Amino acid sequence: MPAPRTVLLTGAAGGLGTLMRGLLPDYGYELRLLDLRPVEGEPDAIVADLADREAVREAVRGVDAVIHLAGISLESSFEKILAANIEGTYHLYEAAREEGVGRIVFASSNHAVGYTPYPRGDEPLIPVGTPRRPDTFYGLSKCFGEDLAQLYWDKHGLETVSVRIGSCFPEPTSVRMLSVWMSPADGARLFHAALTAEGVGHTVVHGSSDNTRLWWDLTSARALGYEPQDDSEPFAAKLVAEQGELDPADPAQACLGGHFVTDPPIWPY
Ligand code: NAI
Ligand code: 15L
Could you tell me the pTM of the whole model? Predict the structure, then answer.
């Protein structure tokens, strides 16, 4: 696949979309933007709902690849998740297939496997092939997205890198996030690797920085050429002083997905 240049960024008005709008142009990409909401300072952004199949098809027409961030990014009702994350992602894949787009980078989430206990002591890092254990309807929708990606690769030759993102924010804000944090700069490095690596088929990778307290294995991400440069540890002393170390005896602090495993999820996480 020739290196992509024009990339559709869905969810461009959101937190991660805003960070990536700032960082990805430095890698030489021309971004086409889409969101349900207007994108501040971007009058040319496409304002459309993923429910609008014609608009989605028009949005993907002529792009080399898609970074798919749009959707509901926390737990919600099943009906809302169904429309935005499940049907919406299906509409995007159908549009990409119809328009001959070669690759999608799909924003999956740690919450697809959120009930997985994080490693204790010397236990091995969580492998990317760990069984799915969604912690919410939201996490379930990310399992669907990963399986949809596999189907479209096997059946239609449309490639995807599914990035199970940990927590991509300017700084980690909880002790849990120290283990799953992906700095925005590392996020851009990983998305760039996912867009340019050869022959990815459908590859699932963990999305985080090279954190001292890392919980999961980054081998498949590194195999794409991703070389994380950041580590959350400089934020650790302050967060641990404020919040204490995680208590694995507390169900809300025992798993990869943190408070998402509780019913209902406890915010903040
Ligand atoms: P966000 O909630 O800030 O942004 C999501 C954007 O999608 C919003 O601007 C929203 O308007 C748009 N959107 C929602 N429904 C839509 C629809 N039906 N049609 C078109 N646009 C729609 O979320 P954030 O943090 O930027 O996350 C982006 C993606 O990455 C999400 O898919 C999220 O699940 C995933 N992710 C993010 C993580 C993070 O740490 N930020 C961690 C794991 C996954
Ligand atoms: C996610 O999947 C969410 O989209 C994001 O807002 C954070 O909650 C992140 O996971 C996390 O687990 O910290």
Answer: 0.98
